[in-house]
């Protein structure tokens, strides 16, 4: 029997399904985490570190009851990336993060669509009143996405890494 996360929400957008991670996502995450594409999240990683990172992603759901969603295209369960609420024990505040695992999926609005849904979930269902995105200053794509999401730079915010830029998200209109 394969363990799986129970009672995790599934979010659907016009083009995407956001769901909890599952065992079949590991090879996709591993390939991303071992590649230079992971440079803005501390990689590329060695295999053991990539494994522990994936376990951390799954574990956050089990410990906190929320975590990063893996997103897929509707009708195709192949993982494209991850986005969602992120709040490790040593993080200064709640974060909305995102990654696109394959270069071919960049520039298509997928991260914006997925991160918008994940942010709305955090402010709505989870009741968050604020969230940040901590971004490597060389990650122009993520900076542009944070700004497209309406986040604004907060130079006074605490950060997990001193070099990070912190972008603060406002609750969407109508959020709890």
Walk me through what this model shows.
This protein has 176 residues and is of the alpha+beta class. Helix content is 28%, strand content 21%. The strands form 2 sheets. The chain has a 5-stranded antiparallel sheet with strand order 1-2-3-4-5, covered by helices on one side. The protein has a 3-stranded antiparallel sheet with strand order 6-8-7, covered by helices on one side. It is globular, with a radius of gyration of 15 Å.
In short:
With about 180 residues, this protein is of the alpha+beta class. The chain contains 4 helices and 8 strands. The radius of gyration is 15 Å and the shape is globular.
Could you name the key traits of this structure?
single chain, 176 residues, alpha+beta, five-stranded antiparallel β-sheet, three-stranded antiparallel β-sheet, 21% strand
Compressed to H and E, one letter per element, the order equals EEHHEEEHEHEE
Q: What fraction of residues sit in β-strands? A: 15-25%
- Structural class given helices, strands, pairing? alpha+beta
Distance between the termini: 38 Å
Secondary-structure blueprint of this entry?
Elements: E1 11-12, E2 16-19, H1 26-33, H2 47-64, E3 69-73, E4 79-86, E5 95-100, H3 110-123, E6 131-135, H4 140-148, E7 152-153, E8 165-169
């Amino acid at each position: 029997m394969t363990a799986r996360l129970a009672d995790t929400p599934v979010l659907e957008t016009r083009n995407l399904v956001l769901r909890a991670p599952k065992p079949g996502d590991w090879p996709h995450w591993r390939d991303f985490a071992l590649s230079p594409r992971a440079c803005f999240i501390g990689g590329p990683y060695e295999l053991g570190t990539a494994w522990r990172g994936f376990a951390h992603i799954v574990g956050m759901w089990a410990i906190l009851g929320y975590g990063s969603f893996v997103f897929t295209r509707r009708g195709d369960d192949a993982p494209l990336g991850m986005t969602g609420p992120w709040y490790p024990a040593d993080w200064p505040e709640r974060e909305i993060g995102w990654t696109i695992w394959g270069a071919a999926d960049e520039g298509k609005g997928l991260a914006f669509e997925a991160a918008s849904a994940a942010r709305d979930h955090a402010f709505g269902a989870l009741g968050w009143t604020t969230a940040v995105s901590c971004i490597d200053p060389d990650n122009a794509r993520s900076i542009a996405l944070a700004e497209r999401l309406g986040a604004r730079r907060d130079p006074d915010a605490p950060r997990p890494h001193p070099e990070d830029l912190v972008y603060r998200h406002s609750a969407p209109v109508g959020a709890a």
